Amino acid sequence: MRKAVKNIDHNSPVITIRDLHKSFGDYQVLKGVNLDLYDGENLVVLGKSGTGKSVLIKIISGLLEQDSGTVNVLGHEMSEISQKELRDLRLHIGFSFQNSALYDSMTVRQNLEFPLVRNKKNLTKAEVDHAVESVLDAVSLSQTINQMPSELSGGQRKRIGIARTLILQPQIMLYDEPTAGLDPITCDEINHLINEVQERFHTSSIVITHDLTCAKQVGDRVTILLDGQFKRTGTFEEVFDTDDERVKSFYDYNFIQ
Ligand SMILES: Nc1ncnc2c1ncn2[C@@H]1O[C@H](COP(=O)(O)OP(=O)(O)OP(=O)(O)O)[C@@H](O)[C@H]1O
């Protein structure tokens, strides 16, 4: 089902990218990318394998440096950021990676406590407990608190992974292929969760996916990375209402609910 239209304030970007270029040797991956992520929106980034979606996310999170152009994240210009500022900034960015595995030898509670104990050292035990219970409630898995990851389904592990990210109360969420490898019903649940996270935690999110059902269900806006640039950006319907064969073929090869 198509996501309901949400009013987004287009005057308050949390990420602004202008004329971003990135090459590896002679291979130009990003060739003048422009992008805004507005406060409180879910922006879906579509693109075939190898088009540079992960490179873009790595530049946004300071794991890779751009060759040229500007990347501003929560008011920080990434080419000028100090190591200390970068460490602090990363606490405001939540990563939900495809393989963001849980620690198998730790219970769900211990997995969730881990980022807090490491990054917010002066919290009391009661505050940590409260934070753990609150994020578990947000992902509707309170009953799993004492379970081991091996006792959870793939979808549940994905939800706990998202909860572990949320525990640091990020302003920006970066989801890399959130529905990859999940069955359609579990995909549906994860898409709902992404929208719930947006509402409950007021996050602004970039969702990288090949899954058009996911794009339709979670995206306030959708954009497609083609030949190193975002060629089409808008609502799901606006993006696919085109005669551009490259966009049409992307649509035609996807099963969509
Ligand atoms: N550190 C690196 N060194 C050299 N080449 C790289 C590096 N990182 C990425 N690339 C190249 O950049 C291109 C884009 O890679 P990227 O991982 O961003 O693709 P993607 O769009 O995320 O693909 P997928 O959907 O398969 O994950 C690829 O050709 C890749 O080989």
Topology summary:
Elements: E1 13-24, E2 27-38, E3 42-46, H1 53-60, E4 68-73, E5 76-77, H2 83-90, E6 93-96, H3 108-119, H4 125-138, H5 154-166, E7 172-176, H6 184-201, E8 204-208, H7 212-218, E9 221-226, E10 229-234, H8 236-240, H9 245-252
Parallel strand pairs: 3-8, 3-9, 6-7, 7-8
Antiparallel strand pairs: 1-2, 1-4, 4-5, 9-10
The structure holds adenosine-5'-triphosphate.
Q: Tell me the strand order in the biggest sheet.
A: 6-7-8-3-9-10
**Mean of residue pLDDT values:** 91
> Rough shape?
globular
What is the H/E string?
EEEHEEHEHHHEHEHEEHH
The count of domains is 1
Uncertain spans: none
Q: CATH superfamily membership, which one? A: P-loop containing nucleotide triphosphate hydrolases
**Helix content class:** 25-40%
Q: Can you name the CATH architecture?
A: 3-Layer(aba) Sandwich
Number of strand segments: 10
Number of helices: 9
Main attributes?
257 residues, alpha/beta, Rossmann fold, six-stranded mixed sheet, four-stranded antiparallel sheet, 36% helix
Describe the structure.
It is built from nine helices and ten strands. It has helices at residues 53-60, 83-90, 108-119, 125-138, 154-166, 184-201, 212-218, 236-240, 245-252, and strands at 13-24, 27-38, 42-46, 68-73, 76-77, 93-96, 172-176, 204-208, 221-226, 229-234. The strands form two sheets. The chain has a six-stranded mixed β-sheet with strand order 6-7-8-3-9-10, with helices on both faces. Strands 2-1-4-5 form a four-stranded antiparallel β-sheet, with helices on one face. Helix 4 (125-138) crosses helix 5. The longest helix has 18 residues, at 184-201. The relative contact order is 0.18.
